[in-house]
Amino acid sequence: MKAALVGADGTLLHEARRATGRDRGADAVVESILGFATDLRAYGTTHLGAAAEAAGVAVPGIVDAEDGIAVYAANLGWRDVPLRALLAERLGGVPVALGHDVRTGGLAEGRIGAGKGTDRFLFVPLGTGIAGAIGIAGAIEAGAHGCAGEIGHIVVRPGGPACGCGQHGCLETVASAAAVTRAWATASGDAEADAADCAKAVASGDARAVRVWRDAVDALADGLVTALTLLDPRTLIIGGGLAEAGETLFTPLRAAVEERVTFQKLPAIVPAALGDTAGCLGAGLLAWDLLATEVSA
Question: Contact, 172 vs 129, CB < 8 A?
Fold first, then answer.
């Protein structure tokens, strides 16, 4: 878990991290979140001279932001957790905003990160899976049911690897950091090898690594072109573990996307700027947005 105290302008005032403790079960994870938030608020009072005026929390899985419910998260084992109400109670009644982790990270990248000043962008983190956040005029489009942006489940290789969603050949099964790790471990014969190792091998000219990397980049380009055909973003922000490979990823990816576009306008394809603090900063922005809404109301 990552947590932060964030100023009204998005400035990171204090950051802390703790283990989620998911091995102890869903209830323990919820209690860890509540305890972490309590300690963070106390830190602000003691060290910054003021308690937090509001709280924002970003969680994975399916989120009902309007009702403040963490609906489902496979990795954390919870269902229908009234997280907003629980946090508000633990924090003495301060306003609490709940958001989806990727969309919240996208909000931060759009406002104060790589998408700052861009009216329309698509933020795509490449990690264990692949998700997306659609940015429009400083806000993130959640969709009618809170499921917008799930680019990782566009089928790019019909009949390909089975996906946890029930389909086969989804983008995240062939182009995520986890997918590259699996492919490189097999190709290299090293069960401990990961995507970062593959990127290093690509940079050194290893032909096996180049094939694995090219397959992933080609699949990623196919998925991204589908997304930009539908959304027409001005900027495409790529983050997550694979983006840490720098130009080893971005040079072939830009070329592959450019090869595939026909009538579409090619967006700027840029690396994310905020790293793994994006979610913290985005949660802080959600909290400040909530305060601004209450004041205007």
Answer: yes
Encoded amino acid at 149, one letter: G
Question: DSSP character for 120?
Answer: E
Compute the chain's Rg from CA coordinates. Answer: 20
- 3-class secondary structure, 72: strand
Helices (H), 189-263: 195-203, 207-231, 247-260
Of the candidates 129, 141, 116, 215, the one whose C-alpha atom is nearest the C-alpha of residue 165 is 129
Nearest to 87 by CA among 294, 287, 295: 287
- E strand or H helix at 4: strand 2-6
Q: Which of 87, 72, 101 shows the shortest CA–CA distance to 165?
A: 72
Q: Tell me the torsion sign for CA atoms 84, 66, 23, 177.
A: negative
Return per-residue pLDDT of the chain as tens, 297 residues. 999 998 888 788 999 999 888 888 889 999 999 999 999 999 999 999 988 999 999 998 888 988 999 998 877 888 999 999 999 999 999 999 999 999 999 999 999 999 999 999 999 999 989 999 999 998 999 888 888 999 999 999 999 999 988 999 999 999 999 999 999 999 999 999 999 999 999 999 999 999 999 999 999 999 999 999 999 999 999 999 999 999 999 999 999 999 999 999 999 999 999 988 898 899 999 999 999 887 665
Q: Pick the closest to residue 98 from 62, 122, 139 (CA basis).
A: 62
